[in-house]
Every structure is written in C-alpha cells, then in structure tokens.
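HUMAN: Ready with one sample?

ASSISTANT:
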Amino acid sequence: MAGPVRPLLDGGASAVEDNKPGRKASGGTERASGTPAAVPSAQSSPEDGAGSPAPLTAKTLTDAQSLMADELPDGLVVADDAGRVVVYNRAAVRLTGVAASDAIGKYVFDVLPFRDDDGRDWWMFVDPYNGLATRTRHPERSLFLAGPRGGMEILVSVGYVRDGRSGSVRRLVITLRGAQQRARLERSRAELVSTVAHELRAPLTSVKGFTATLLAKWSRFSDDQKRVMLETVNADADRVTRLITELLDVSRIESGRMEVRPQLVDVPERARKIIAGRVASGEPEDRFRLDAAHDLPETWLDADKIDQILGNLVENAVRHGAGIVSVVVRRARVSGDQQEAITVSVRDQGEGIPPEMALRVFRQFWRGKRRGGTGLGLYIVKGLIEAMNGEIAVARAPGGGAEFRFTLPAGTPIA
C-alpha cells in the first residue's frame, strides 16, 4: 500500500515514507519512495543546469544574522526552496520544544507538524511550494503543534519570498508567537465589554424610567417636575455619548487610525474654556487656577484633541485629587533636537500617586482609590498626546498631590 501523500516541492504529489517529501531526479524521473533528495552543500554551483539559484543553506548565513535572529522576541523559522529549515531561532526553540540542532536541515513540515482546529494537516491544505503563485503571505492564525508538545496552541504567520511577483518560492519565513498574548487580549476585551455594560446600564435605566413615567403620567406632573426629569434624561444621554466616544477612541488608538487635524491652537485659551465649563456646571471658581507664560511659541495642534486631553486631566484632578486644581502652561524644548515645545501641567493638592503606580495609571481600566468612570480616560489621553508626537508623565506636584505633565512640539507643521 502506498505511503502517506505529501505535496512534492517541485510539482505534483508523491507517496512517501518517514514523512519525507519525494523529489525528482535531475533526469526528470521520480526518486524511489522513501529516498530523500540530497541536500545541496554550500559549495554547490551558484546555478544548477536549469539556471535556478542555489538553495540557501545554514552555512551561507553569517554569524551576525544568526545572532540577530536569536535576539528576536518571536519565534523565527526560515525554510529554503527545498523546504528544509535553515534558520531556527532561540524563541522558536522555547515555543516548540524542538532543539535548533534537531531542526536545521530537516523538512519544515516535519519540524512543525501544524494541525488546524479540525485536526487536519495544515501544510497539506496550504501547499506552500505548489499553491497559488501570487500568494505572498498567510495572516496570523491559531494552529496546534503535534508531536512532543501535542495539542499546544501557537499563533503562526507565514511570508513567501519568491523569484519575482509570481515566481517559485525561494524561502518561507514563519513567525511563531505563544497563544498567551491572545488570551490576555481576549481577557482585556472581556473586561472592556463588562465595563461598558456596567457603565451603560445605569444611564439607560434612568432614561427608560423617566421617559416611561412621563409618557404614562404626563398630566400629573408640574412643569418644574417635568423639567427636572428631562434634564436628568439629557444628562444621562450625554453620559452615554461620552462613553461611546471613549470606546471609539480606544479602537482608533489600538489600530493606529487616530487622525490629527493640525490648526493654530491657543492652548491657554482652551484651558480657560475647560475651567469655565467646570465652573458653569457647579464647581466653585476658586478651586481652579490657570498660570500661562506670555512667551509661548506658536502651536499647531488638533484643537478637539487638546480640549479632550485638558478636559480629561482636569476631571481626573477634580475626581481623584483635592484642593486647588492648577493648569500651568510653559515654553520648553524637546530634548535631543532642541525643537521648541510647550509643556502643560495639571496639578492637584490631593494624596498624589505612589511612584510604583506611575506607569500603571495610563493603562486601560486603571482607577484610583475613588472608584468611578470607565478607567479609560488616562489611557485615551496618552494615546491622543502620542498621536500629536508628544509625551506625558505623572509625578508628585511641587505642593503635594499629583502632576500630569505633557509636552507637545510647537512651530509650524511641515507639509
């Protein structure tokens, strides 16, 4: 009975033994089943009789290239035009449990026996060396590694290096990542869904309750009572709108699709409007202080994003801090290239943030001791500032409390 079928690397398919692909001899006749083709040596002629370049072998790689491959955080496996492994870095060893000495020179199909969700041989289905000639890559997907670590899930992506746009495959470049990162991402998304559901429930319940009451008993309420109910509905609708805006911002930040529309912006004037809005909503005027230098450079920034950044930082100081909330705007220079910039500091007089927590405050879902909100505000602030080529940090304010200080480049933007 014929052995299992493996796609031939130079066309067709052949029954094979010992999981080794069949190869055709130079005369065109197929080799006997179970007899692997000879591995070309580094001393082989640069071109064979058919004019094809000599296959890349492990000996042709420089020591520097090997060291660079070992420094990569993800697994890297490279197979030559015959399907033999020529690069197998340290991360790949860690992920698969296969030693580099056991992988180099072996067929990639045998070193990495991938199975899909249905347990099928993934290599048989993609047929990398004889499949679609215009294929350039396989996007990252989850596969299972058979063998010593059978059933272990690995995230795999494959790139093709071809002779020309649709020529034969010169190399397969395979990257491997542990599935733990995807699990963390899924947990983060689940937490986001849970947080959003919790934050939406309260305002939507309020909106539903008041509107149902007004529709059923409109004539029983006085005009003042109706106004109070409608103002509550309006405030809750604004709360839902803010939450949806935050979710859209998170999506744009994570996908790198945050658009910036530069225009001439007066940052102190924007801060003044933010403070005026807080006072109009009931905050005491003497709780806020604006300190802006007179020699500020011209700034071309996204006005809406500046409003959002200042609004979030001031709200954070009011909610989690205490005492006077100060907004300080100063001229500065970006370290390194001495480019002009401005710095904006938002300070409070509360307990401050412990140094060990300084890096955590800009993560998703971080909340201070006083719980409230989605925990996305500072994460979004950092993303907006970085989208405008700025940076932000948190430290202890000069008079105690927390100081959120961000720096943004100044000057006319380069077209």
Notes: The first strand starts at residue 5 and ends at 7. The CA atoms of residues 262 and 301 lie 4 Å apart.
